[in-house]
Amino acid sequence: MAVEINITYEGGLHCAATHVPSRNTLTTNAPVDNGGTGAAFSPTDLVATALGTCMATIMGLVAQRNNLNIDGLQIHVIKEMTAIPVRRIGSLKTRLVFPPGKPLSGTDRAKLEAGAKACPVKQSLHPDVETPMEFVYPE
What we know:
The chain has 3 helices and 6 strands.
């Protein structure tokens, strides 16, 4: 199924994007290190956001199928740019912190981790983009 997104360049390295099915909008601006003001997500920030939210969504599906509760899961994504060989995302480091009071067996953890690693956004990234993941479970 195709999804339409309409984007308007508003000048000043600023864009407005509309998700047609929901009519939700978001704005972007170039980052400070690339001539923008950093007043909004940059396009590459949205890639980092897409990765983290995709992982959470796929893990949520795994949790639903296995009657697990991962509500409160926190995902932190650190995006690092590189200029080699061209300006691009060099790495997207993720740290997934599970909420306390919701114990998960080793089998459940393995299923959730496999889900995160199989998320469609991660699978769509170029293999040169490093995507290390750290899973943190409460003790």
